[in-house]
Amino acid sequence: MRVLLLSAYDAQSHAQWRRALQAMLPHWQWTEVCLPARYFAWRVRGNSLSLAFGEHADTLREPYDLVVATSMTDLSALRGFVPELARIPTAVYFHENQFAYPTSSHTHNSVEPQVLNLYTALAADYVLFNSHFNRRSFLQGVSALLKKLPDLVPKGLPERLEKNSEVLPVPLPDLTDASASDACWSEQENPLRIVWAARWEFDKDPELLNAILMALDKRNIDFRFALLGQRFRHTPRVFDDIAQRFSDRIDQQGFVESRAAYLSWLASADYILSTAQHEFQGLAVLEAAALGCCPLLPQRQVYPEYFTHEHLYSTTGDVAQQAESAVDKLVALQAMATKPEISVAPFASQHLCHAYESVLTRVANR
PANTHER family per the record (predicted)? Predict the structure, then answer.
């Protein structure tokens, strides 16, 4: 099978997914075309132009049995620019969707990314989502968007997409060799070791993170903290406030280049804390759980799909109330003689390999 793999905004989770996909199906012949994950607004709107007429133009016009593209790919325009692609069966993979993206007073809220998501899904022969939450919020978002349009809106589009889609998570890599020896926590008398691992952007709710750290401090809970994740050109100022306010508690700050060292921070932590307002699978949390780290998560987004109530704190009320709920949940987890068991086996590559091969073969044979 000759497969063209398109990653039009190759963020970390997208890169992890495409590497895992090829590792699961090494007997297929893969051709990758990826665009860097920067200049988001331009990339999602202009990737079809960059791909069709740029350095990858000849690669796109070669013969393939199947095209697999991420949802960031402007597939409807790309198939118009490159007619050869319109004749090849195509599957689109949604790591996230723009319908569930939180609004902010600091960002320009445009409907265009949602429309591009919709067009790409309709231009595909089949659509895959990494979680039921992702699929459900996408279909609900499409329905809500179509109801706002003034006229000539075709009927049955959400139903068509629902029928033509399913859920396949991003596979977790083998973590059996992960070691906790690379993490450098400060030596103190049994502090809680807490790690936060996400993009340094507003949709990960750094205001809530700051409030939780302040609540921990106020209750005199001894803790050390690792603030992991990518920092971008425009980062909310609250991250600088956190770095300054808790400088005496932070043992790691910022992106960890080494994959082994990153996993070491997860493996050596007691808790992985999330404050995300925008999360469709939560790879960092799942990897941490696989390494024995206990999740402390907001009761929203994808998390209730994968984790029991013992790990979920309330997200009702203001930020201070949410922070108190998170600390209450942490204290309750600390008091448990045995932590609730978490199984990440359904996300293992060996578990998902057959499902991926079956689905993609079916699409290719259409």
Answer: GLYCOSYLTRANSFERASE-LIKE 1, GLYCOSYLTRANSFERASE-LIKE DOMAIN-CONTAINING PROTEIN 1
Under CATH, domain 2-171+349-364 is a member of which superfamily? Glycogen Phosphorylase B; (3.40.50.2000)
Span 199-221, pLDDT tens digits = 999 999 999 999 999 999 999 99
Beta bridge partner(s), residue 34: 7
- Tell me, yes or no, if the pTM score tops 0.85: yes
Q: CB-based contacts of 317: which residues, under 8 Å, 6+ apart?
A: 325
Take residue 249 and report the two structure tokens written for it.
């508690």
User: For tokens 């952007």, what's the residue?
Assistant: 201
Q: Which residues contact 4 (CB under 8 A, 6 or more apart)?
A: 31, 33, 59, 60, 62, 64, 66, 67, 68, 85, 88
Q: Which residues contact 30 (CB under 8 A, 6 or more apart)?
A: 3, 5, 22
Burial zone of 281 (CB within 10 Å; 0-12 exposed, 13-18 middle, 19+ buried): buried
Task: Spell out the residues 6+ positions from residue 147 whose beta carbon is closer than 8 angstroms to its own.
Answer: none
pLDDT in tens, 249-303: 999 999 998 989 999 999 999 999 999 999 999 999 999 999 999 999 999 999 9
As a whole number of angstroms, the distance between CA 289 and CA 342 comes to 7
Q: Is the pLDDT of residue 233 over 80?
A: no
Is there a shared CATH topology between the 2-171+349-364 domain and the 192-345 domain? yes
Residues 6+ apart with CB under 8 A from 255: 228, 229, 230, 231
- Residue 104 binned pLDDT confidence (cut-offs 50, 70, 90): low
Residues 6+ apart with CB under 8 A from 275: 196, 198, 204, 205, 206, 208, 209, 212, 298
* Residue at 196: amino acid letter: W
Enter the tokens of residue 67: 């095209």
Class of 192-345 in CATH: alpha beta
